[in-house]
Specification:
Blueprint lengths: L1 H40 L2 H10 L2 H9 L7 H12 L2 E9 L4 E11 L12 E12 L1 E7 L2 E6 L2 E5 L14 E6 L1
Antiparallel strand pairs: 1-2, 2-3, 3-7, 4-5, 5-6
Helix pairs in contact: 1-4, 2-3
Protein name: Putative Flp pilus-assembly TadG-like N-terminal domain-containing protein
Organism: Actinacidiphila acidipaludis
Pfam families: Tad
């Protein structure tokens, strides 16, 4: 009977550890996505200026590369990690499609159990999110700029009443392996 109780408590400890690990992975995923999205959004002013001026070369450049890292992306990662009961241990910009790899550690421990040492163990996880262009700049027709995108053609007129620039139309932010 004692062996069965020990086994039940051991399974419970493994379950606790799994829950903490899954929570840490969720925090890492959210933090990496927040960093990549913040990095993407930092080109909004330049993108809007290029759209307004109709500078197709600059629009092409902005779609194929993003700007330098100013630290705001890792700050956004820290905020999202904190919202998910974790703290950022590392935040690094990656090459290829630009993005960020974020490593986190859970703020809480696995807790005490029949397995010695778990009361001081924290779950750790990491995730990488990238920013990839969804469109290519096409041509200009008056105030309108036409783009060829994954979902089909997109025509933008930045001088239109009520125009709002949504960079999600032009970039995909997603988790990567």
């Amino acid at each position: 009977m004692a062996a069965l109780f020990f086994l039940a408590f051991a399974y419970f400890a493994v379950g606790q550890a799994t829950v903490k690990r899954n929570g840490a992975q969720t925090a890492a995923d959210a933090a990496a996505l927040a960093a990549a999205r913040q990095y993407r959004d930092e080109v909004k002013t330049d993108f809007l200026h290029a759209l307004t001026s109709g500078d197709l070369t600059e629009l092409g450049n902005l779609l194929n590369r993003l700007g330098p890292d100013d630290g705001a992306a890792c700050s956004a990662a820290g905020s999202y990690a904190g919202d998910n009961d974790a703290e950022v241990q590392s935040c690094q910009q990656v090459n290829g499609p630009p993005g960020y790899t974020v490593g986190v550690r859970s703020t809480g421990t696995v807790g005490s159990s029949v397995i010695h040492g778990t009361q001081n163990m924290h779950a750790v996880a990491s995730a990488t999110a990238v920013v990839e262009p969804r469109c290519q700049a096409g041509d200009k027709d008056g105030n309108s700029v036409r783009f060829t995108c994954d979902d089909g053609d997109l025509t933008i007129d930045p001088t239109a009443s009520g125009f709002l620039l949504d960079l999600a139309d032009f970039y995909s932010v997603h988790l990567s392996k």
